[in-house]
Amino acid sequence: MVHPAFFAVLPVRLSLWVWRRASARRLLLAGLAASMAILSFLGRPAQAAYSVQVVPSSPALGDTIAVIVQGSGQPPTVSARGQDYPAYDLEENRFRALIPTSPLDQPGRIDIRVNGDRGTNNIAVGLRNRSFPTQSITLSPGRAGLEGTDYEFDRMDALKALTTPEKYWDGPMERPSRGAVSSLYGLRRYYNGVFAEDYYHRGVDYAEGNGAPIYAPAAGRIALVGRVADGFQLNGNTIGIDHGQGVTSVMIHLSGFEVNEGDFVEAGQLIGRMGATGFATGPNLHWGLYVNGVAVDPVPWRYDGVE
């Protein structure tokens, strides 16, 4: 005979049994869900910290490498060859850093690192070799015009070191002279038969008559007006333009000025007159384009433009 107490506790035991089965089922389902989530995560390819574009994708010596970064947060740090390059805002969540190259660089692999709030990207780009013309020059001992002054060098160094946050240029740059091109960027030289290891022609030369007009290749602020009378013996009369974000133009050998320091100019605006001041053999304009202190080839900036 079943004791009456059995019937009294039976509903409780049944409830406990049902509750335990339900709990076990819930735990099993939760475990399966967690396992599936882990497997899904492990099977998913790793996401890059930023979306990064390198332009041009196959640069050559003398090119300017634009590293365009897309991602939220503060501007990332872009580094290559042991040096950091500032990244500037192009628009919301879009940044750009400029890496200059020159004929003095070694062709081959360049490792670019983008590091910021979202993590780190590592990109490799190949820097192609490029042939540059050579020129032999014979200099007589003590030839005048070869020495610059400390004042001249200091002012030029300060111009090339500018990193104004604003971007003044827009689109491809313009030809600064109507004269014929007389010397190309990157030309290497032999002086008295000895190869000048550290020398390359740091710009493009244009030849025209004395007093011919010189125009701003792009918008910017006149950051330098250097005069022979003030010590600009090597470059002669000089105009320096700050285009913003580490990009500057240098116009040398001028005969006269049409602007003053501090003026803002537009692309194509008259800024000076061609001359033969400084170390020059005749009337010409030397246009040097500097990116983060390095003289780069202006030609891609004229025809392709750099964002």
Automatic annotation (TrEMBL):
One Pfam short name: Peptidase_M23
InterPro entries membership: Cell_wall_metabolism_enzyme (IPR050570), Dup_hybrid_motif (IPR011055), M23ase_b-sheet_dom (IPR016047)
Sequence ranges assigned to domain M23ase beta-sheet core in this UniProt record: 200-298
Example GO molecular function: metalloendopeptidase activity
Signal sequence, renumbered to the chain: none
Protein's name in the database: M23 family metallopeptidase
The organism's taxonomic lineage, starting at the top: Bacteria, Bacillati, Cyanobacteriota, Cyanophyceae, Nodosilineales
